Amino acid sequence: MPFFDFHCHPSLKQMLSAPGENLTPWHDLKVKLKIGKLFGRETSIGINSLFNGVFNSQSNLKQMQRAGVQLAGVVIYSIENKIAQGILERKIASSGKINLMDPAKMRELQSGNNYYEWTKRTMDALVNNPSPPAGIAPKSARFKFINKIEEFDRNDTNTVHGILILEGLHDFCNDPFSADAEAEFDANFADFQQRYNTRIFAVNIPHMQDFPAANHAFGMQIIKEELFYPNGSGLTEWGKRLVKKLYDNKILIDFKHMSFYTRTQLIAQRSLQGFEDIPLICTHAGLTGCHSDNRYKYLNTRPKLQNGVWRIRHHKLKGSVQDSAFNLSSINLYDDEIIRIIRSKGLIGISLDQRILGFPTDSVAYQLNDYPYDQEFVAHSEDEIFFRGYDDPADIPFYIPGDDVLTGDEALVHGENSFEYHYYYFLNQVFHILQVAKKAGIPISEAARCICIGSDFDGLINTLDCCRTVEELGGFKTYLRQILTRRPSFWQPLSIRREQVDADDLLEGIFFNNALDFLKVNFK
């Protein structure tokens, strides 16, 4: 059985390497730190395994072809200027001592006025390398973008068939904040379509930082957080025009990275503009585990206004599946949004980023049984929407934890055996979707057809320990099946009974069939 991945970046990190590296999307990445001369020779050493686990390649084209990923949402993304700024503020990166991070390229990106140029460079790296360089991968290996699902050849196991996705519409801007940004966007959008003749299947409108068309959800964990505070308010007039432009061009809009208010406005615009028949998607999702009405219920502390944004800390609500928990940050989907996606006959790609799936980050405080929390920031300009019902969000009481939230002791146990627990954190996403659907009167089989993998591999994520690279998808799937078929205890806390779910059908759907069926309808 082949594999599908709704969201992966096989060309992102290669673009950051020094000019002499000459890397293509087929190359493996090995992060090295230059330490100077040793015994008269220039010497580099490997960086610690944690850093390598995030930065080393997780889904280059060679790995994808070898793993049997025959069909994938291949993402183009121009690194945003504040990400470049945050990286350059770290001396180890700005010094040029990391072989796969060219400071000159990062400084170019930091200017924030040439995103479209980077979009073209990244696209060129993919379309100009349909086959691997000699000695990198089998000569028969191929990559190609397809413009409709009929161009996918399931019998061609040598080819990775790419479906084009753009992460962030800053990709089509020179400077998104210039006076003529919208006109430049329209010109670059038209140029891209003429230049590459490749159909854009889906886009995220905002990504990790402010974008003048739509406000984003906070989602940055590894760089100075204040660079990524959301400051907008939903969809602007330009954003509303973009929604129409995208849907008119048969381009799907990805829920991921929008603020909660922006997502509610997208739903309203679909109705006002007559696009309700178009499916909703989230290509690399995590779940909050609660209805949006409870979006500020499980607070670890009262909201605090700092530097023009509200700081929010959520307890980690325990999962639907044993030994798991959720990340309640509003970058993730609420239960009512899951229902909207299912009823629109859409598709949810489950991210393989352990943070997004709710796994607690390391903390010495767990030794004292302190409650784990997830922190996010909400724009002051959206507080009337996000904190509806409170004139002053600082008045919202924090939640008195019971058995329904993860404790420090439990987080400590999960962290000590993360490889095993990460399977349960993934299955928690799957079975929460099924249980939410069942509660809403939607057949389990119908809900199951709306789930797939959206790994975000190579997107600088902290992957599940039990599935660190695309080449581990096969073993990941096999062990998930063993849990579902050989561990009766797994089913005990669920409202769904074992006999209601065929494990093979469920997993074959998630790892390939559901996406293929979706594309047969929506990528013709």
How would the blueprint of this fold be written?
Elements: E1 3-8, E2 32-38, E3 41-46, H1 49-55, H2 61-67, E4 69-76, H3 81-88, H4 91-94, H5 103-110, H6 115-127, E5 142-145, E6 159-167, H7 181-196, E7 200-204, H8 237-248, E8 252-253, H9 260-272, E9 281-285, E10 304-306, E11 309-315, H10 335-343, E12 347-350, E13 373-379, H11 383-386, H12 408-416, H13 418-439, H14 444-448, E14 451-453, H15 473-486, H16 503-522
Parallel strand pairs: 1-4, 4-6, 5-6, 6-7, 7-8, 9-12, 12-14
Antiparallel strand pairs: 2-3, 10-11, 11-13
Task: Describe this structure in a few short sentences.
The protein is about 35% helix and about 15% strand.
Please supply descriptive tags for the structure shown above.
14 strands, 524 residues, 6-stranded parallel sheet, alpha/beta, TIM Barrel, 33% helix
If you had to describe this structure to a student in words, what would you say it looks like?
Strand 10 (304-306) and strand 11 (309-315) form a beta hairpin. The mean pLDDT is 94. Helix 3 (81-88) packs across helix 5 (103-110) and helix 15 (473-486) packs across helix 16. This protein has helices at 49-55, 61-67, 81-88, 91-94, 103-110, 115-127, 181-196, 237-248, 260-272, 335-343, 383-386, 408-416, 418-439, 444-448, 473-486, 503-522, and strands at residues 3-8, 32-38, 41-46, 69-76, 142-145, 159-167, 200-204, 252-253, 281-285, 304-306, 309-315, 347-350, 373-379, 451-453. By secondary structure, the chain is of the alpha/beta class. It contains 16 helices and 14 strands. The strands form 4 sheets. Strands 1, 4, 5, 6, 7 and 8 form a 6-stranded parallel beta sheet that branches. A 3-stranded parallel beta sheet has the order 9-12-14. The protein has a 3-stranded antiparallel beta sheet with strand order 10-11-13, with no helix packed on it. It has one domain (3-522): TIM Barrel. 33% of the residues lie in helices and 15% in strands. The chain is globular and about 60 Å long.
